[in-house]
Every structure is written in structure tokens, then in C-alpha cells.
């Protein structure tokens, strides 16, 4: 990921990846049939983060902190570089096979996210007049949009951008509008 963050996905040949990892090219291809397969491994990591959050939410008394931590955990690795995010978006949009794969991953992630939303609905924390899957889609699209806009903007703090977007989305999906943990509805501290 470091090389992709520095040069972009398309501008990083497999030879540089194997050299940086100090492995033979053949060894690389034993683990990853193509360079794009690295992105599939990243997608699996992201699904793991969402599944872990789903498990955490099942026992939580509030899904707000679970969702807040999750959006930051999802941003930890791939969002270390604006160039990397732009590059990943570009590859996802231009590579038909990868685009279909990412579509399936997004759908799977959304189904797990909907379980967290359902837990929030059970707790009386999240509105029930809209299906959990629809609210999960809104949250997913808002976070992805935030990443995309951040990746093409002048340098700014991604965590701050995510917090601001999440606060607005939360106000839209929550039964009560203030953001938990604040007197005026704006979040001051980061919960991770």
C-alpha cells in the first residue's frame, strides 16, 4: 500500500512491489494472480472491519460509537494518501472485472452495515420509518463520497471530514438529532 500511496496504483509495477517486499516475482504471483488481486485482499480486510463492528453492535447499548469507530477503521489503511484513494477509485471505475467485484463487496458490506442499523433501531436510537438497508446505503454512499471529495480537494484532515459527514448523516437517521456526547450536537472528541 505504501508504494500505491506514493505513486498510485496504475504507476506501480509488480516488479517494484516484489522488490519492496523482498520477494521473487513468482512468489508474488503465488499469493496474487494479478496486481488487482491486492485490491481484492484490501476489500476482504474492509469487510472484516464491518463484520467486527456488526459483532460489537450486537452487544452494545448504543450503535453510535460503533459506527463512528467503524468509519475511521475503514479509512485507516486505504485512505493514508489522497493519491492512493484517487488511484483506487480510478481503477475501480475503469477495470470492468474489478468494478463488478467492488459492486459485490459494497453490497455485502451494506448488508452487514444494515445489521448494525437494525440494532440501532431495536435500541430506539435509529429511526424505523425507513428500512435498515436503505439507511445503510445512505451511510455507505456518504462515506464513500467523503473519501472521493477529500481525495481531490486541497489537503485537509480526512478524519475531520469523516466526522462532519457522519454527524450530518447521524442527524438524518437518528431518532434524536443531537450527536451523542455533545451539548450542542457537534462532536468535539474522536472516539476510536
Number of β-strand runs: 0
| Portion of residues within helices | over 70%
The total tally of domains equals: 1
Order of helices and strands: HHHHHHHHH
Structural class: mainly alpha
CATH superfamily placement: Tetracycline Repressor, domain 2
Provide the β-strand percentage band: under 5%
What is the radius of gyration?
Answer: 18 Å
Low-confidence residue ranges: 183-192
Q: What is the CATH topology?
A: Tetracycline Repressor, domain 2
Number of helices: 9
**How confident overall, as mean pLDDT?**
84
Largest sheet: none
Intertermini distance: 22 Å
CATH class annotation: Mainly Alpha
* CATH-level-2 architecture: Orthogonal Bundle
The rough form would be described as elongated
Q: How would you summarize this macromolecular structure in one to three sentences?
A:
This protein is mostly helical. The chain is built from nine helices and no strands. It starts with a helix and ends in a 19-residue tail after the last helix.
Ordered list of secondary-structure elements with their pairings:
Elements (H helix, E strand, L loop, with lengths): L1 H6 L6 H8 L3 H7 L4 H24 L4 H13 L5 H13 L1 H27 L9 H21 L5 H16 L19
Helix pairs in contact: 4-5, 4-7, 5-9, 6-7, 6-8, 7-8, 8-9
Amino acid at each position: 500500500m505504501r508504494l500505491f500511496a506514493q505513486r498510485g496504483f496504475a504507476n506501480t509495477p509488480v516488479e517494484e512491489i516484489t522488490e519492496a517486499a523482498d520477494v521473487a516475482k513468482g512468489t508474488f504471483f503465488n499469493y496474487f494472480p494479478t496486481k488487482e488481486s491486492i485490491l481484492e485482499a484490501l476489500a476482504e480486510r474492509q469487510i472484516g472491519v464491518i463484520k467486527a463492528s456488526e459483532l460489537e453492535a450486537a452487544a452494545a447499548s448504543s450503535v453510535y460509537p460503533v459506527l463512528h469507530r467503524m468509519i475511521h477503521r475503514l479509512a485507516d489503511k486505504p485512505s493514508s494518501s489522497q493519491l492512493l484513494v484517487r488511484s483506487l477509485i480510478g481503477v475501480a471505475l475503469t477495470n470492468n472485472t474489478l468494478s463488478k467485484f467492488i459492486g459485490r463487496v459494497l453490497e455485502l458490506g451494506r448488508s452487514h452495515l444494515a445489521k448494525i442499523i437494525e440494532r440501532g433501531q431495536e435500541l430506539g436510537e435509529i429511526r424505523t420509518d425507513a428500512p435498515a438497508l436503505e439507511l445503510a446505503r445512505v451511510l455507505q454512499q456518504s462515506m464513500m463520497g467523503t473519501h472521493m471529495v477529500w481525495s481531490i480537494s486541497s489537503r485537509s484532515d480526512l478524519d475531520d471530514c469523516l466526522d462532519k459527514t457522519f454527524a450530518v448523516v447521524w442527524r438524518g437517521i437518528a431518532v434524536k438529532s443531537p450527536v451523542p456526547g455533545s451539548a450542542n450536537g457537534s462532536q468535539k472528541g474522536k472516539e476510536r
